[in-house]
Design a protein that fits this description.
mainly alpha, two-stranded antiparallel sheet, 3 helices, disordered C terminus
Length: about 100
Amino acid sequence: MDKRMLPVSCPSCGQALKVRRLECPSCDTAVEGCFGLPVLARLTREEQEFLVSLVLCGGSLKELAAVYGVSYPTVRNRLDALIARVRFLSAGSENDEGKESSE
């Protein structure tokens, strides 16, 4: 399954990318500006797939462990790491918004 993912960091310096232009393929309307990416879009492909699997399992870590073929504690540790990453990205988003509104 070859899915192209939206790049979220600069391949040169590693900083977070921002969206400058959005276009409607139907009517050619375009919106330009400097838009940050939502937290979930800034997760890695693996992190996003893990979250989708968790939702499809109805939030059951036991079922998710069976899907991945790993132990419950392994899935719990992975979820804890993902929670920490989302918290980190969310805190960064709040800081970025504060910077943008003060400029």
